[in-house]
Amino acid sequence: MIKHFRNLLGLSFALFLTLSLSAQEQAYKVGLLGFYNLENLFDTIDTPDVNDTEFSPAGAKNYNGRLYYDKLNNLSRVISELGTDMSPDGVSMLGVAEIENRSVLEDLVSQESIADRNYQIVHYDSPDRRGIDVGLLYNPKYFTVTESRAVPLMIYELNGEDRIYTRDILLVGGLYDGEPLYVMVNHWPSRRGGEAASARLRNAGALVCKNLSDSLRTAIPNVKIVIMGDLNDDPTSPSVAQVLAAQGKKNKVRKGGFYTPMWEFFRKGMGSNAYRDAWSLFDQLILSDNFLDENQKGYRFYQAYIYNPNYLIQKNGHFVGYPFRTFAGDAYLGGYSDHFPVYMAILKPVN
User: Fold this and answer.
1) Confidence (pLDDT) at 149
2) Is beta strand 179-187 parallel, antiparallel or unpaired with respect to 224-230?
3) DSSP state at residue 48
4) How many domains does the chain fold into?
5) 3-state secondary structure of 263
6) Rounded mean pLDDT of 313-332?
7) 241-259 average pLDDT score
8) What is the C-alpha separation between 330 and 51, in angstroms, rounded?
């Protein structure tokens, strides 16, 4: 049985924020950005040339409209709660993974619990063999999109000839409350075949993000960058710690570098997904160094969170203590996702 850790760190910091603002008589704007792997959010249509038959009424899972709308209702409940102890608007930007197409996101954002937030969608179809993509939901009250594109991850089998078709990296840029901000939403290749043998594939994803970041920093002064997603790697894995050189301690972040607030969670044994009775922290938020600059007037990083309330935890069965998933094999469990969502708060002083 896996040991479960509650996110007490995040809860205590939410309280500290209120007290510190009162003591310092300083008002702040609060921004909340997050990521959530939605665990196979498929519609019920068996689409030609897409490996989605199992998520159809004729498939092994007997997947139908009732299950689909139960899934949408469950996911929208979680999204509706993220960060509402800090802002009634909740998360203003949410990267998502394991979604079949744009239409499932349109159905998701129209759910009653989040419909009034008017979430907009950025999505492109990826060449992934399973037909799953990444996407971005954003609240136009906070963020204005000026650019978006799908950046292909060109990786190959060891023969150097056969391409491995996986998820593109979604690059979205714009203005967050007037400040230039770019977000990269990722779902890097899995550890199929073994962590070490497949590491080169995730390192390739990290290198694409690093190169994109270098180009953005050259082109746009003071641009802030967030790399988010299901990286299928932990904060200490080579893709994050070496290729991106993301540091887990603020005082080690160099100019032009990256900071990963998820490192501290991982150090304490906390995770966002579980496998073989061990926690992993594949769902990550990685920030450009200028989020840590206390001398700038714009948004600064405040705190990261793993959202893991009791109802998101499996209570019985083989996966007891794990995130409460929708299916175990072909058996419907009625849960939410096999990943916990992660999010972060950024603050901007109000003069």
Assistant:
1) 98
2) parallel
3) T
4) 1
5) helix
6) 94
7) 97
8) 15
Q: Residue 123 sits in which domain range?
A: 8-350
Position 15, amino acid: L
Helix (H) or strand (E) holding 99, with range, is: strand 93-99
Q: What are phi and psi of 187, to 5 degrees?
A: -145, 85
Helices 102-109/65-81 angle, 10° precision: 60
Locus of tokens 């897409």:
50
Q: What is the pTM of this model?
A: 0.93
Rounded CA-CA distance 284/304 in Å is 10
**C-alpha to C-alpha distance for 32 and 90, rounded to whole angstroms:** 7
Q: Is the pLDDT of residue 15 over 70?
A: no
Instruction: Please choose, from the candidates 64, 70, 66, 75, the residue with its C-alpha nearest in 3D space to the C-alpha of residue 99.
Output: 75
Please, where are the H alpha helices in the chain?
A: 8-24, 65-81, 102-109, 195-219, 238, 262-267
Indicate which CATH number applies to the domain containing 275: 3.60.10.10
- What tens digit of pLDDT does each residue of 142-164 get? 999 999 999 999 999 999 889 99
Examine residue 108 and state whether it is found in any structural domain, yes or no.
Answer: yes
CB 35 within 8 A of CB 343: yes
Segment 192-197 shows an average pLDDT of 94
Question: 75 or 51: whose pLDDT is higher?
Answer: 75
Kindly state whether residue 129 falls inside one of the protein's structural domains: yes
Does residue 259 contact residue 250 with C-beta atoms inside 8 Å? yes
Mean pLDDT for the stretch of residues 24-46: 92
State residue 1's pLDDT score.
53
> Nearest 10 degrees: CA dihedral of 235, 236, 238, 239?
0
Query: Tokens representing 123?
Result: 């999505």
With contact defined as beta carbons under 8 Å apart, do 56 and 45 qualify? yes
Residue carrying the six token digits 């290729």: 243
Residue 2 belongs to a domain: no
- Residue 3 in any domain: the answer is no
